Structure formats: structure tokens, C-alpha cells
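3.2 Worked example (two chains)
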Amino acid sequence: MIAVLDTAIAEHRWFPQGIVIRDVRCADLSIGLPDHADGATEEPDRRIPLDGQLGPTEGHGTFIAGLIRQKCPTATILSVQVIQDDGVVAEADLLEALNKLWLRQKLAIINNRPEDLIDVVSMSLGYYHEDYADLAFDPLLLAPIRALAQLGVAIIVSSGNDATTRPMYPAAFAPYPDGVISDVLADELPVVAVGASNPDRSVALFSNEGAWVRAHRPGAALVSTLPPTDAAGSPSVEFETDVKEPALREPYGKTLRSTLDPDDFTAGFGVWSGSSFAAPILAGEIAAHLTAMGLPPADDVDPRHAVTRGWDAISARVPTLQRPGQKSGYRTGDARDAAGAAQ
């Protein structure tokens, strides 16, 4: 089970019943912002841009869910909305969501409900240290992240898209010598910061880098799912012709010809780039590895066992991250696969 903290995930034919859970709860508490995709009311000036264009993060979570589905088709995806329509993530919303996810995980362990356990959290968001308030926010954010990691939840975060070595958080909570967490710990899973690579496996120019970035995954010109909508844009060229092509002829003998409309996503798919999409690819790989390992016994909710399984999956997919005191957490074949994917 993968929790995606992002924008809402739209209905899509790639997400049949049971694949995406949108009403994520901790007991009677809802987790994440309200999902207005079902027609619930909201301030009209926030929901309908006056220029008719899609918002800057419209479909972001949907695109991520499609990437996860490509890597691990059997994964259950929890849609936890923390990104607002304008792309802003409020600190309080992110903290509340993470703390509720931790409480949900803890209750699943206490109440012996393995079906409620989360294996991976994928986050494609972050901030830089701009003032002292940001420094004060670090421990508040790190606490639920580490609490989840100690329960065996892998935390996968994108590195950012500003082509800088400046640490971006929460990705920079990944262990590195000068970081907040200076080294990997045996009893909790490490935060894994993921940078973006190009199709030729070079590092994408926009991708952030630094000692805290320990993995790279494809993040340029990816194809995935988008809400099946058409924005106000139009093709650059569009005209009718009387060319005699019976298979294409419209009524009255006219055929509409045009260039590609870049804002038409009615087919439900599109192309996008960003380290935002490298992180869920690795999250999907880790979920697929856990699936290949086989399900734990039905009554196994021991977080120590979850940490061991999580370390095995992370080490297999990110060979530079190994559990202290363990020579190798992966088989030779897995290592070759991981090395090839991480270029």
C-alpha cells in the first residue's frame, strides 16, 4: 500500500475499483484536504481560473498514480491531498496528514489489522530554508516522518527541480554526513531522496543534487495518466478541407485537420517532466519488490519485521543504501537491476 501525499487523484479508467482509495481515514478522522473533484462546493474563484487554463499542479497526483501503477500494478494507492489547487502546501496540512498516517499505522499494529498497513509514502513537494521559521519547522516535520520509518514505512521524496545543491526538505532529511540525520540507522528506514534522469540516463538539468540525493529515476518526458479534460487552449493550426478521403470525411464532405492541441487531455494521458515523477517511480519499484518477496503471515504486524522487509526492498533498488551491520540486503540479480535503473 502506497500513500501519495499530493493533489487529488482523479477518476480514470486506469484506476478501477479498489486501486485508488480517496476517502483515507484514521478511525473516524479524515486524512488530507477535502476532495472537491466529486462536485463538492468550493469558492468559485478558487476552482475556475478566469483564463480557462489548467492550474499549475492540475493532474499532478493523477500523473503520479499512473506512474506507480506502471511499476506496481497491484499496489493500492491512498490518495492524501495536501497540495492546494494553486500548488501551495500549508505546513499545518502536511503535518496533520503525516501525523494521522502515523496514528493510522500504529492503530493497525495495535488492532492487528495488516490490511491497513502502509508500506510506502511518496511525497513530491518540499521547501528550502528561507528564515528561522523554516528551521523551527524541521523538527515538527521530521518527527512523524521518523515515526513512520520506525514502523517500517519507506519514505520516498523528490529532490526538487531548481538545479541546485541547496538542501530541499523533506528530501534532505535523507541520511548524509552533514545532514540532520548524519547516517543510516538499523532500526528505521531512511528517507530516500530521488533525483530525475533523462531517457539516456544522464541527470536531468533541472534536477537538484547533493550528498542527500542517493537515487535517480526517470523524470523527463514521461507518459502517464491525467484527468480526461480539455483546457481553453487550441491547436496552433486548424482548418477544414475538401480532400477526398472517404475514411476521414465528415458529413458534407468536410475534413477537419489540425496540429496537436497541447491542452487536450481527453484521452486521459499526457507527457510531463520533473523530479516529482522520479520519486513515485522508485516508490512503485519498492512496492513491486515487496510484492515479489511475498506477503508476510496474515498475523504479522510486527514493525521490526516491516523494517527488515523495507530495508531489503530499499537496498535492492538503491544499492548505495545498506542496513548497518548487514553485508547485503539483496540478491545478485536484484543488484544488477537496481544498478541499471539508477544510472
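3.2.1 Second chain
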Amino acid sequence: MGRLDEKVTIITGAGQGIGLAYARRFLDEGARVVIAEINDERAAAGVSALRDAGYGSDRVVAVHTDISEPASAKACVDATVEAFGTVDVLINNAALYHDIDNFDMSLDYLKKVFDVNLHGGWVMASAAVPLMVAKGEGRVINQSSSAAYLYQLPFDMPFTEVSSFSYSQTKWGVVGLTKFLAGQLGPHGVTVNCICPGITTTEATNKQVPGEFQDIFTKLTALRKALEPEDLTGAAVFFASDDGRMCTGQVLCVDGGLAMPA
């Protein structure tokens, strides 16, 4: 018996990295998993890895999903219900990170990042939560980042223009969205919590964060250790399981002691 037996879980952006680690851990805990992924190649690779681990189509499927589009989000939920009958847990893991352009300071690009990283979580919740409310229970787990709390970087940068702080801004917004949703949905039996990972060793991080900067951030953590995707999965299982049934509106930084917000 796992801690999440038969819990039907949608995990956005689960074709690789942290999302795939969530999928594997949730399957190990007995859940049924839908990989909601915009990149079909990543989705196929993720499903293949899980198939190799022994999980068939009765346990995990992939659904092409653009979290910034309400119709796509609804189609994902509909496909989940068709495959597994309901939705018990939503993990809003997907974000514009692997392909983010940290040097584009335009307003249009900032809006694009908000559409995915912040509004995408709201879009997915809008599609999935009504099923949870109807049965009086459910779990939403949002993913922010310790970047939301790193207001002062440990190195000087020459001023050229006001930064958009696109990634950090949107991840700070996820914290607020978590609390407002928790306040609304608590009376209906749905908990909403948030995980803030630190810099985690993934393909996306290796692409976006130079190795020397990864070393700097690791040295700034209390534990002096880099995170692996699997280090995030215990927090997600806690929030999704009965162990976390009385926790809502909470933000848990799993970052080795980097941000330590009050």
C-alpha cells in the first residue's frame, strides 16, 4: 500500500526534470498519473522512462497540454477523467524555464512569461478544481521557486535598464495565487500548497545557469549541497497525502536552506 493509492494526479510539465521525478515518485506511491506536457517529444521520453520502470497505460498516460490555453487545460482534464475517472491531485509544475530568455526585457515577453508561469497554474486549477469541489476533497500543489525570495544577488551587475525579473516575478506571484486559492477552496475540502525548489540539477538548470553560478548558490545554502529532482518529491507526497490534510496555504522551500523566508 502506497501513501497515494489510486489518487489520480495531473502533473504539468512532467516530461523531464522535476516533473518526471514527481511522476515516478507518485507512481511508486500508488497514484495514477497524467503527464500534461506541451512538448510531445519530452512527453514521449518521459512515458518511455516510466514504462521501462514497469508502469503501463493503466497507470500513466500523456496528454498534450498548453497550460496557458483554457481549452487545452479543459481537454487535459477531460482526457484524465476518460482515462482514470476523476482528478484528485493537480501539480502545477510546468513553467517557462528551460527555454526562457533572461535577456529579453520587453513588456510583451514579460506578459508571455506571466501567461505560462503564473496564469497557467490558475488556468489548470480552473479546469481541474470543479471536479474536486464536487466531491468535497482534492489537492492542488503549485510550484514556485526560491528565486522568488532572492531579492539581492551575491554579485554586482552593471546597470543598463530596469530588469523585468520575469522568472522571479512570476514565481512570487505563484506564492500569492496559492494563498488566495487556499482561502477560497478550503471550505470545499480542497487544499492548496506551494513548493519552492532551490536550484536543482536538471537539464534546464544546466542550460540556464552557468556552472560557476550553480556553485555560488550551492555554497550559499545552509547544507552546502546541490538539489536533485528526487529531493523535491517527498514534499509533494506529503501535501498530496492524508498526512497533509490539515495543511493549506503553506509555502515550503526545499532548497537546502538558501532562501529561509520568515
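3.3 Remarks
The two ends are 36 Å apart (CA to CA).
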